[in-house]
Amino acid sequence: MRIAFIGLGNMGGPMAANLVKAGHEVSGFDVMQSNLEAAAANGVTAAGSAKEAVAGAEAVVTMLPAGQQVRAVYMEEGGVIETAAKGTLLIDSSTIDVGSARAVHEAASAAGHHMVDAPVSGGVAGAEGGTLTFMVGGEEGAFERAKPLLDVMGKNVVHAGGAGNGQAAKVCNNMILGITMLGISEAFSLGQALGLEPEKLFAISSKSSGSCWAMLNHLPLPGIVETAAANRDYKPGFAAGMMLKDLKLSQQAAAEAGAATPLGAEATALYTLFCNAGNAGLDYSAIIKMIQGSK
Ligand code: NAD
């Protein structure tokens, strides 16, 4: 298949490389020359513009920073929606606000394209290994067309419903993660203050009603869970700045939908404090240090 890939950064670069490895002809574009060159070294044909990459493509994949760039790349004059051939499959895998995702979908459908929003979880390691989870929003027909390509880049592809529902699933999931990490940080700090060894609390709680994914995989204290960033001086992993981005998207979505998310709001405030203190580049589990008063 002839695919255009726009946004060849930390995630998009290896995702495009996996499409090439699977035998697809990938024409790529990025505003950052070094990222374009790195992609070219992996078999992506470097295009001089998004328009050039999209010419003749049957599918377009975008992996851009935020809603602003996605709206621009798709909806500006000379953008993807205007220049792609009618009926092109459009896949946006960026993590963006639900409102922008739905606005781009609407413009794409009006122009006769088939679009899905397909944000991911799994990080750079998942992008490199082709093991990402895709949360997909869009019509059934568009999902069926996108699935074979998403299967190349990921191992878990879930259709979450109509336009924007992929982004909705992503923000809801990551709001749970942010809130549970704070809960674990408080509980393990309280345990220590009460003279309870973290190993003992983990042995009990990980098998009890307090157990959760973040505790089992990202425990914020070192020496207990092998996969925890706490063992590597909180080198990410999943950076606190990325968690804050996703929490802010959850609050934007909550405001637009009129939904009450008081714990999501508190988590957003706490991660804002943590990131503003210069910790955005640490793993999100390092927030336990702020709870304990040492960051
Ligand atoms: P990144 O900054 O490394 O890559 C984004 C790329 O888009 C950059 O290379 C940038 O130059 C390019 N770009 C920006 N504007 C452009 C434009 N107008 N035209 C062409 N290219 C343009 O970011 P990333 O880490 O690859 O993340 C991409 C998306 O994936 C984000 O929405 C992020 O939230 C999401 N995400 C990232 C991770 C992760 O672990 N890095 C995990 C899950 C989801």
Task: Please characterize this protein's 3D structure.
This protein is an alpha/beta fold. The chain has 14 helices and nine strands. It has helices at residues 12-21, 33-41, 50-54, 67-75, 80-83, 98-110, 123-129, 140-153, 165-193, 198-205, 213-218, 240-257, 262-279, 287-291, and strands at 2-6, 25-29, 45-46, 59-62, 89-92, 114-117, 120-121, 132-137, 154-161. The strands form two sheets. A six-stranded parallel sheet has the order 3-2-1-4-5-6, with helices on both faces. Helix 1 (12-21) packs parallel to helix 7, helix 4 (67-75) packs parallel to helix 6 (98-110) and helix 9 packs across helix 12 (240-257). It is elongated, with a radius of gyration of 20 Å. Residues 6-12, 29-32, 35, 50, 63-65, 69, 72-73, 94-95, 120-121, 123-124, 245 line the site of nicotinamide-adenine-dinucleotide.
Main attributes of the structure:
9 strands, 295 residues, alpha/beta, three-stranded mixed β-sheet, six-stranded parallel β-sheet, 53% helix, single chain, binds nicotinamide-adenine-dinucleotide, 14% strand
The bound ligands are: nicotinamide-adenine-dinucleotide
Structural class call reads: alpha/beta
Distance separating the two termini: 50 Å
| Count of DSSP H/I helices | 14
Largest sheet: 6 strands, parallel
The beta-strand count equals 9
| Envelope shape | elongated
Stretches where pLDDT is under 50 for at least 5 consecutive residues are none
Helix content: 40-55%
* Mean pLDDT across all amino acids: 97
Instruction: Kindly estimate the percentage of residues that lie in beta strands according to DSSP.
Output: 5-15%
Widest β-sheet, arrangement of strands: 3-2-1-4-5-6
Instruction: Report the radius of gyration as a whole number of Å.
Output: 20 Å
Order of helices and strands: EHEHEHEHHEHEEHEHEHHHHHH
